[in-house]
Design a protein that fits this description.
Structural class: alpha+beta
Distance between the termini: 28 Å
Radius of gyration: 15 Å
Largest sheet: 8 strands, mixed
CATH superfamily: 2,3-Dihydroxybiphenyl 1,2-Dioxygenase, domain 1
Strand order of the largest sheet: 2-3-4-1-5-8-7-6
Strand content: 35-45%
Number of strands: 8
Shape: globular
Number of domains: 1
CATH architecture: Roll
Oligomer: single chain
Helix content: 10-25%
Bound molecules: ligand V0V, cobalt (II) ion
Length: 147
C-alpha cells in the first residue's frame, strides 16, 4: 500500500549550490542531511509539507561522492534534474512484492538503508515507463523520540 509521496530525488553537481537555489527561490531549509556511503551520495532533505514523523514530503537533493555511483552516472548521461520519485509505504517489503508480482523488477532482493534509517527499494525505470521509482518505509520512531 502506498500512502504518499515521500520525496522527489534531484541529481545535482554541487549540493551546496542547489540548497542555496531552493532556499533563495522558495525559502526551503534543510531538514536533514547525511552521507550514504552505500548509495554513494551526499544528500539534503528539504521538507515541503508535513511534520518529521514519517508523514512529510521532501525534495531530496543528491550529489555524488563516488564516480561509480548511480548519481554520478546519471549526471554524466543526463545532467542535473529529476532522478527519481519515492512513494511512502508502511511496509516496503509488501509493497515491493505487490509491484514485482505484476512483472516489474525490483533492484534489491531485500530493502537497503535510506535516509534517516528508512528502508528502501527501487523499481527499474525501464519497467516503470521511464521513471526510477523508490519505495520507502520510514524508520520506526525510537523510544528517545517519543514525546
Ligand atoms: C537510468 N535510466 C533512468 C534512470 N537511470 N531512467 C529514468 N530515471 C533514471 N534515474 C535509464 C537509462 O537512461 C538507460 O536507458 C537505462 O535506464 C540504463 O541506465 P544506465 O545509465 O546504463 O544505468 P544503470 O543500468 O547502470 O543504472 C540504472 C539504475 C541505477 C536505475 C539500475 O541508477 C540504480 O541502481 N539506481 C538505484 C540506486 C540509486 O539510484 N541511488 C541514488 C539515490 P536506455 O539508455 O537504455 O534507454 S539514493 C536514495 O534515493 C536514498 C539514499 C534515499 O532516498 O534514502
Ligand atoms: Co531517494
Amino acid at each position: 500500500m502506498i500512502t504518499r509521496i515521500d520525496h522527489i530525488g534531484i541529481a545535482c553537481r554541487d549540493l551546496d549550490a542547489s540548497i542555496e537555489f531552493y532556499r533563495k527561490t522558495y525559502g526551503f531549509e534543510v531538514a536533514h542531511s547525511e552521507v550514504n556511503e552505500e548509495q554513494g551520495v551526499r544528500e539534503a532533505m528539504l521538507r515541503v509539507n508535513g511534520t518529521d514523523d514519517g508523514g512529510a514530503s521532501y525534495l531530496q537533493l543528491l550529489e555524488p561522492v563516488r564516480d561509480d555511483s548511480a548519481i554520478a552516472k546519471y549526471l554524466e548521461k543526463h545532467g542535473e534534474g529529476i532522478h527519481h520519485i519515492a512513494f511512502g509505504t508502511p511496509d516496503v517489503v509488501a509493497t515491493t512484492e505487490a509491484a514485482t508480482s505484476t512483472g516489474v523488477r525490483a533492484l534489491y532482493g531485500t530493502p537497503r538503508c535510506g535516509t534517516s534509517n528508512s528502508s528502501i527499494n527501487f523499481l527499474h525505470p525501464k519497467d516503470c515507463h521511464g521513471v526510477l521509482t523508490e519505495l520507502v518505509q520510514a524508520a520506526a520512531p525510537s523510544a528517545s523520540e517519543h514525546h
